[in-house]
Amino acid sequence: MSNYPKPINRLIEALSYLPGIGPKTAERLAFHIVSMDETKVNHLITALQDSRDKVFECSTCNNLTDKDPCTICQDESRDSNLICVVQDARDVTAIEKVQDFQGKYHVLQGVISPMEGIGPDDLNLKALMDRIQGEGITELVVATDPTVEGEATAMYLNKLVKPLGVRVTRLAYGLPMGGDLEYADEMTLQQAFEGRKEL
Question: What sequence ranges are listed for the domain Toprim?
């Protein structure tokens, strides 16, 4: 690897396990950590350990939590008949930042992707079906990414859930705020026209 002391080499290697962290960035981070005062290093160590040891999936929705069920599932002010289906826990956080959705969530932990060998059985669909049948869900908002895999997952969910009398909706997508039409691709423009609404 390099002529650095073994502990630094191990730290660089460990940091490079993180997504988006290449060898150079891992090296910079390692040297930054080595130069940090002991209190901050201990805080970092504790935060890493706690995140790994004390965070788990909610038994109801599969969102990441440190209590079971999670605070969203426990919140009685939320509409229990409305579930937003997302790919992973980061999507829950993104939607919650908007502070507009007042239903509950279900985290699929992925999307259907035959190219990656991920089929419906690899997703958290059984738990979703159990919730739909046991909790009286009336609407499912599918909030998977607008990709081929996200669309395939949305279509599969629609076929699976619609026969149960549950309304299945999809998040609208199209042009971003502040975007220029001239830079939009054809698919985005098509979806923007399909999702248009009356003013």
Answer: 81-176
Instruction: State which residues form the domain around 110.
Output: 60-172
**pTM across the whole model:** 0.85
Task: Give me the numbers of helices (H) and strands (E) for the chain, helices first please.
Answer: 8, 6
**39-58, pLDDT tens digit by residue?**
999 999 999 999 999 999 99
Are 66 and 119 in the same domain? Answer: yes
Q: What is the pLDDT of residues 97-152, one digit of tens each?
A: 989 999 999 999 999 999 999 999 999 999 999 999 999 899 999 999 988 999 99
Q: Is 190 part of any domain?
A: no
Q: How far apart are CA 23 and CA 81, in angstroms?
A: 47
